[in-house]
Specification:
three-stranded mixed β-sheet, about 350 residues, seven-stranded mixed β-sheet, alpha/beta, single chain, about 30% helix
C-alpha cells in the first residue's frame, strides 16, 4: 500500500514493552490492513524495553506496508512510584507522557493500546472534530458513569453487572458530578496543543500522586479526573470493551438496544480489556479467532498459548487470594493443595 505523498499523515502513538510486543504486532497489523489507501501513517512506538531482535520482528511483521515508524525512548523517572499491580506494567502510563515525547509540531494524535483489533479505517477516527474537547474517547462499558446508581434510573438491572459502580471512589471529595460519563482510555484522539498549553501531563502525574489511596484502573483514574467534562464522546464502536459481553441483553446494559447490539456485533475497534487476552489459554472472547488470524500474518505466526504457561501465571494468583482469605501464608496454601491436610 502506497499512500499519496501529499496527504497529511495520521499520527498514532502506542506503547509497549517486551512482554506486549506480540499483541502489538497484531494490533498494528490490523490497523495497517484496514487503513484506507489514500491515507499516510506515522506510527510512534513508545518503547518500554523492547529487545533489538524483537523490534526487528515487529518491523518484519509490518514490512508489507508503506508507513513511517519511529521508536521513542521515554524518561520514566516520574513514573517510578506508579502502581503496576494486576496485569499492567509501567508502559501503561506512557500515554500520559505523549505530549512531551512527540515533536512539538505534532498538534494531534490518536492513542491506541496494544491489545486491540482494528476493524475499520482509522482515517475515519482521525477526521472526528474536537470541537472544544481536549480529547475524544468512548464511554467505558464496564463503568459507564462516575456513579452508576446515581446516573441511571433506580433499580436499573445493569447496576449489579458493571465492573464497579464508582470508578472514581473519592469523586465526592474531588467535587465531580456523579452523573458524568466515564471513558475508557484504550482508544483516544488527543488535542496535543491543548494538553501542552494546559500542562496536563504534570497535572495527571500530580493527580496520581495525590490520590494514591483511591486509584482504580491506574492512569485511567487520573485521565477521568483531570479531563472530566472536557472530553468528547466517540461512537462506542471505536472501543468495544470486553465487559460488553457480561451483559446478557440490552435491557441489562447501560445502553439503548441499537447501540448495544451494534457494539457487540460490529465493533470498529475490539479492545481485549479483560485480564484474559486472546493470546492466553481459555480465552473465549468472540473476536479471539479474528485476532489470531491477524497474528498469523505477523512474525509470530503459529504462536498459540499452552495450559502450562497459563497455569504458571494464574495458580500463584489463586494461591495468594485463597491464602489472604483464609489468613494463612501462601506457602501453607500451596502445601495444602499439593499434599492435603494432615
Amino acid at each position: 500500500m502506497v499512500a499519496p505523498t501529499g496527504t497529511k499523515p495520521i499520527y498514532v502513538a502506542m506503547a509497549a514493552d517486551e512482554g506486549f510486543a506480540m499483541p502489538l504486532a497484531a494490533t498494528v497489523r490490523s490497523l495497517l490492513e484496514t487503513l484506507a489507501s489514500d491515507r499516510r501513517l506515522h506510527l510512534f512506538i513508545i518503547d518500554g524495553g523492547i529487545e533489538p531482535r524483537t523490534a526487528s520482528r515487529l518491523r518484519s511483521s509490518w514490512a508489507d506496508f508503506d508507513f513511517q515508524l519511529s521508536f521513542v525512548q521515554p524518561d520514566v523517572e516520574n513514573l517510578r512510584k506508579a502502581d503496576t499491580s494486576g496485569h499492567v506494567s509501567i508502559s501503561t502510563y506512557f500515554r500520559l507522557l505523549i505530549p512531551d515525547l512527540l515533536p512539538p509540531e505534532i498538534s494531534e494524535v490518536i492513542y491506541l493500546d496494544a491489545d486491540l483489533l482494528v476493524r475499520r479505517n482509522l482515517g475515519d477516527l482521525w477526521d472526528e472534530p474536537f470541537g472544544k474537547s481536549w480529547c475524544l474517547a468512548s464511554q467505558d462499558c464496564a463503568a459507564p458513569y462516575i456513579n452508576v446508581r446515581e446516573a441511571l434510573p433506580k433499580n436499573h438491572r445493569c447496576a449489579r453487572l458493571v465492573a464497579t459502580r464508582t470508578p472514581i471512589p473519592n469523586y465526592l471529595a474531588l467535587g465531580l458530578d456523579a452523573c458524568l460519563p466515564y471513558y475508557n482510555c484504550g482508544v483516544m484522539r488527543l488535542d496535543l496543543a491543548r494538553w501542552r498549553e494546559l500542562s496536563l501531563t504534570e497535572k495527571l502525574l500530580k493527580c496520581l500522586s495525590d490520590n494514591a489511596d483511591s486509584l482504580l484502573w491506574w492512569d485511567q483514574y487520573a485521565l477521568n479526573v483531570e479531563i472530566a467534562g472536557h472530553w468528547g464522546p466517540l461512537d462506542l464502536r471505536w472501543n468495544q470493551g470486553a465487559h460488553v459481553f457480561r451483559y446478557p441483553n440490552w435491557q441489562c446494559s447501560p445502553f439503548e438496544r441499537e447501540v448495544f447490539e451494534n457494539l457487540r456485533v460490529d465493533p470498529w475497534i475490539v479492545h481485549f480489556s479483560s485480564p484474559v487476552k486472546p493470546w492466553h489459554a481459555w480465552c473465549n472472547h468472540p473476536f479471539h479467532a479474528e485476532f489470531t488470524a491477524v497474528l498469523d500474518r505477523t512474525d509470530w505466526k503459529g504462536t498459540r498459548p499452552s495450559f502450562r504457561d497459563y497455569a504458571s501465571r494464574v495458580f500463584p494468583l489463586c494461591y495468594n487470594a485463597i491464602a489472604q482469605r483464609c489468613r494463612i501464608t501462601t506457602e501453607t496454601c500451596v502445601s495444602i493443595f499439593k499434599n492435603g491436610v494432615n
